[in-house]
Design goal:
heterodimer, A: mainly alpha, ABC transporter involved in vitamin B12 uptake, BtuC, two-stranded antiparallel sheet, B: about 325 residues, 14 helices
Chain lengths: ~325, ~325
């Protein structure tokens, strides 16, 4: 699916899973009244804003052929630390809000740097390290909140997500800004292109003089920073923090990236698809909710969707290889 | 020279046991309540009520690791199979039928994992992680978020003698040890974990072996889940939440490795004991229970670092000998 030639026109660039997604959205639009009405579309976009930010970091990691399991835990600890700080202040000023934002970003970046150092520079197994950071993130958040939930933050801080500019929700504005920056980073900078090279073949990338260690380090640091920013949006939007706020975000982010056509084995796809994937995941959840299926069903379906897409990817690659082998051998 | 070499290889091989003993000694020395010559209650409690679960969790994670995979669906498995077991007992009124259904659910989940990974070639992390969400979601859908209570016969089966949990864990552990070290099947499993292609060429059905490894993990997960329900007295669709982290922490600190064929059944035993003692000892030292999850994260990172350190020591050996 991602093998379809890039740049051969817009329609051809849309992967099979995207067509399935568009079909599902169309189906929802027929079944549910006002599903594509302005109000519900805004709702879907607002819901996807946090996800698209997390998935931006995840895209970079999956392009490398790896997974950052830690994002859920990092969101949790970043949101919880900022939440604790904001609640410790009596009258919140703009300066406090800025510091809260800074705490989110710094905690995220710190975890990202840890992951990047361990995985990129010291070459530990990516999965083990990010899983360890995930457990530490959740565990720290549980420890510092004593297992409880923080809620009720100052409206000045909540403006970050709930405010409106030109009729757009602030969280959508943030998501748009971050998307623009990430698109630039991914498609217009050396770093972004190096990710593809490393994901395709690390040995090749190394031999052509790419600093693999540095690129990998930066990718994980970036993923951590994105998780921190997502934590900021989430905290301001849900108005609560605690040991479970970020639960499942790594899974949703992987889903968004995979639906967007980025291959799990790296080197193929990109952030453009992920934007669509994140919106699609939110649209699907929203549609299921409106049909009357609970959160529980959404979990099940999301798992099925991921398995189906990767299965399709794996099987179609296998068939392609078989076909080309047959051609080679019948010619000879 | 020879002497030093021996000590060194002994230290490397026994590093995990040394960690276990050190932890035990430190906690006994610094607290009165953890263990003393006149105070066996706490250690007895750990052994009978906590350790069996951790050992089984670690074992369920270790077996897929032998074939170079991992089972992240263990928490879904625990929740789903134990809940379906409880539901069957309430519906049919027969304890045996409930246990069989629970085990069947575990085996089925393992089978699906195995087929996805071995037959179609999905990466183990993604396949089992997605199955985890499917399983957890299904448990919540079936239960509609509620709990089940009752089933006295089932609970009495496990709780009438306090050593039951340890006995069951022991039986499963010995069975797994025998199967994976003393039989041809075990050797085939290790050769698949070492090099699946070479194993296939030498006539081993690696697909079947991998599927069986995941089914073993599913079976053990289901068993653990049902034992938990018996211990707690209620079946809950979120019963398993957080167990994957515990299982992975125990497995890694026990010395199992992702690189396949390096993990042993004994790793699960040692790892399970280390995590149990650490969790319990921290409470006795005065660390609140809410910090347990964080400790588990630290264990995972420590285990990763320790593996690298031991590896370095091991590879340094031949150089010393050559000089």
């Amino acid at each position: 699916m991602s093998g379809m030639n890039r740049g051969k026109g817009f329609i051809k660039g849309i992967s099979g899973s995207m067509w399935a997604g568009i079909g599902l959205i169309f189906l929802f639009a027929v079944v549910i009244e006002n599903y594509l009405g302005a109000r519900n579309v805004m709702n879907i976009l607002r819901n996807s804003s946090v996800l698209v930010v997390v998935a931006a970091g995840m895209t970079m990691i999956i392009l490398l052929g790896e997974i950052d399991m830690s994002v859920g835990g990092v969101i949790t600890i970043a949101a919880t630390s900022a939440g604790l700080y904001l609640q410790s202040v009596e009258t919140v000023t703009i300066g406090n809000v800025l510091l809260g934002v800074l705490i989110c970003a710094a905690v995220g970046l710190a975890f990202g740097i840890f992951n990047g150092y361990m995985i990129g520079i010291r070459k530990f197994n990516y999965w083990l390290v990010s899983f360890g950071s995930m457990s530490m993130g959740f565990g720290l958040a549980k420890g510092i909140t004593n297992g409880g939930v923080l809620s009720g933050f100052d409206t000045k801080f909540r403006w970050i997500s709930m405010g409106e500019v030109l009729g757009l929700s602030m969280c959508i504005v943030w998501a748009l800004l971050i998307c623009a920056a990430v698109l630039f980073l991914q498609y217009r900078t050396r770093f972004g292109l190096h990710l593809y090279a490393i994901g395709d073949s690390e040995a090749c990338a190394l031999n052509s003089g790419i600093n693999v260690r540095k690129t990998r380090f930066l990718a994980y640091a970036f993923s951590g920073l994105m998780a921190g920013l997502a934590a900021m949006l989430l905290l301001a939007r849900t108005n609560s923090a605690g040991a479970a706020v970020g639960e499942g975000y790594e899974f949703n982010a992987i889903a968004a990236v995979v639906v967007g056509g980025t291959a799990m084995d790296g080197g193929k796809g990109g952030f453009k698809g992920t934007i669509f994937g994140a919106v699609f995941i939110s649209a699907m959840k929203n549609g299921l909710q409106l049909i009357g299926l609970s959160n529980y069903w959404q979990q099940v379906l999301l798992g099925v969707v991921i398995i189906a897409i990767i299965l399709y990817d794996v099987i179609s690659t296998k068939l392609r290889v078989k076909k080309s082998l047959r051609r080679v051998y019948s010619d000879g | 020279m020879a002497d030093r070499f021996d000590v060194r290889s002994f230290l490397i091989k026994g590093a995990r046991v040394i960690v276990l003993i050190l932890l035990f000694v430190v906690f006994s020395a610094f607290t009165d309540s953890f263990f003393g010559l006149n105070n066996w209650t706490n250690v007895g409690n750990i052994l009978l009520q906590e350790a069996p679960f951790y050992i089984l969790l670690a074992l369920g994670m270790t077996i897929p690791m032998i074939v170079g995979g991992i089972d992240l669906s263990i928490e879904a498995n625990i929740s789903l199979s134990s809940f379906i077991c409880a539901m069957t007992i309430q519906a049919v009124g027969n304890t045996g039928a409930g246990i069989l259904t629970g085990l069947a659910v575990g085996l089925l989940m393992g089978f699906i994992n195995g087929v996805l990974i071995a037959r179609t070639g999905l990466p183990p992390f993604v396949a089992t992680y997605s199955m985890n969400w499917i399983g957890k979601g299904s448990a919540l859908v079936i239960s509609k978020g509620g709990q089940l209570n009752g089933f006295e016969n089932f609970r009495n089966l496990f709780n009438s003698w306090e050593g039951t949990y340890l006995l069951m864990a022991g039986i499963i552990l010995v069975m797994a040890w025998f199967l994976y070290t003393k039989t041809a099947f075990g050797r085939e499993t290790y050769s698949v974990g070492c090099n699946a292609v070479a194993a296939r060429i030498s006539g081993i059905n690696s697909t079947k072996i991998k599927i069986l490894a995941y089914m073993a993990s599913g079976f053990i997960g289901a068993m653990t889940g049902m034992m938990y329900v018996a211990k707690l007295g209620a079946a809950d669709p979120t019963l398993g939440n957080g167990f994957t982290i515990k299982a992975i922490a125990a497995t890694l600190i026990g010395g199992a490795s992702f690189r396949g064929a390096k993990s042993r059944v004994s790793n699960a035993l040692i790892g399970g004991l280390i995590v149990v003692i650490l969790n319990n000892g921290l409470i006795h030292i005065g660390v609140p229970g809410v910090w347990q999850d964080f400790a588990q994260g630290l264990i995972i990172i420590a285990a990763v670092l320790m593996e690298r350190m031991l590896e370095k020591l091991q590879t340094a050996e031949p150089k010393v000998r050559l000089q």
